[in-house]
Structures are given as structure tokens and as C-alpha cells.
Amino acid sequence: MTKSRMAAISMSMLLTAAIAAAVLFVPARALRASFEYTPIDIEIPFSVSGTDDEGGIYKIVIEPKDSSCPKPKETEKTVTGSGSGSFEITADEPGTYEYKIYERKGDDADIIYDDTSYTVTVFVTSDDEGNLGRQIVLSDGTAVKPKDVKFTNRAVDKPTEPTDPTEPTEPTDPTEPTKPDEPTVTPTKKPDNPVAWTGETVSRYLPYGLICLGIGIGIIVIVIIRRKRDSSS
């Protein structure tokens, strides 16, 4: 077999393979173009826990991994204080789509912003009728898979202001003797009426008075009798 004939056979085989591929490819492409999926709306919720200052402003961001992922309707949400929200995505065909959700650091020096970064994987599936379904899987880089997208912000711990120290008391001179306190003398009040002559007092001392009176009278009588005897003798 000559080289020219071999070349002709090879060219014929290549041409046949190309025609067969075109025949198979065109119907498959046409079938895919005629099959339409029912779009599905997907929500990815999140929550934000603020500090004691309810005026804090927090910005939550979502970023698709690549251009094949359906674009979110909003790529950034703002929450004032503590609150919640969600990102909305519309998928129109099956696929595995990955997103990153995080909190953008603010400029308030009194707040410690949550630096957790969540990876959100959305699995979009379809059935034979073109209906789409979805499943969401979360990851934050740890071994335990989180159940929800949550950001917790904290207030900066401020040091306690020191109190003014108590001024020290001046020490006393040890060489100077301490003067004793002078005793306080309370004068005794003289009673207005030293003896109160009541009926009870008179009745108590009357017998003694009578005895004394009798003794006195007796002495006087004895003295008189003696004088009379002496004068008569």
C-alpha cells in the first residue's frame, strides 16, 4: 500500500469521526437549550449581636467565590445595634456555589469587631421536571460546623480610673509628752429642803424625843432635890 493511499484513508477516518461528533453534539445541545429550569430563590440569614451601645453600626459582606456563582441581590447589609438580616440569591440551574460572609471592621475604637469568616456552600439540585432544590452547608474554619451565621461584637475593656490616695496623717512628735485630759467635776446640787418633816417622820422619831425629854426632866428634878438638901443642911 502506497503512502498516498494510507494518507487518504486516514483523512477519510478523521472526516467520518468529525461528522459523527457533530451529529451527536448538535442534538444534545439542542436538547439542553430546550430544557428550562424553574429558578429558585435562596436566602442566607445572619444575625449580629452588638455591644451595650445600641448605636453601633455593623456591615456584613457576602462575596461569591468566582464568576460562576449567581450574584447576590445585595453584597453588603448594614445593621444598627443588635439585629438580623439575610442575603438573597436566585439560582437558575443546578450547581455547587460557594460564598464568603464576614463582618467589615468598623472605625469605632471602643468596639472589638467579630473577625469570623464563614464559608457558605450552596448545593443546587434538580429533578426530572426541572424543579430546583437547594441545601446550605456552613463552615467557619473550625472542626464544629456552625448552625447559623452569627457575629458577636464586644466593647473594649477600659481600665478602671485609680482613686485619689488618702493623704497621710502627720505623725506626732514622740518627744512631746501627751497632756492628760483634766477630769470633769460635776458639782453636787444641794437639796432645797434637807429634811422633809412629814407625818411619817414625826411618828417615827416621836418616841425617842419623849424619852430624851423625860431623861432631861429627871436630871433637872434630881439636881433641884440635891440643892434643897444641901441648903437645909
Q: Helix and strand string, N-terminal first?
A: HEEEEEEEEEEH
Please list the strands of the largest sheet in the order they lie side by side: 3-2-5-7-8
Number of helices: 2
Radius of gyration over C-alpha positions, nearest whole angstrom: 60 Å
Secondary-structure-derived class:
alpha+beta
Taking the sheet with the most strands, its summary is: 5 strands, antiparallel
Unreliable parts: 23-33
Provide the residue-averaged pLDDT. Answer: 80
In brief, what are we looking at here?
The protein has helices at 3-34, 199-232, and strands at 40-49, 57-64, 76-80, 83-91, 95-104, 111-112, 117-126, 132-139, 149-152, 154-155.
Overview features:
three-stranded mixed sheet, 233 residues, Immunoglobulin-like, 10 strands, 2 helices, 28% helix, single chain, 29% strand, alpha+beta, rod-shaped, five-stranded antiparallel sheet
Description of the structure:
This protein is of the alpha+beta class. It has a domain at 40-155: Immunoglobulin-like (Sandwich). Helix content is 28%, strand content 29%. A hairpin with a 5-residue loop joins strand 7 (117-126) and strand 8. The chain is rod-shaped, with a radius of gyration of 60 Å. It starts with a helix and ends with a helix.
Summarize the SSE layout with pairings:
Layout: H1 3-34, E1 40-49, E2 57-64, E3 76-80, E4 83-91, E5 95-104, E6 111-112, E7 117-126, E8 132-139, E9 149-152, E10 154-155, H2 199-232
Parallel strand pairs: 1-9
Antiparallel strand pairs: 1-4, 2-3, 2-5, 5-7, 6-10, 7-8
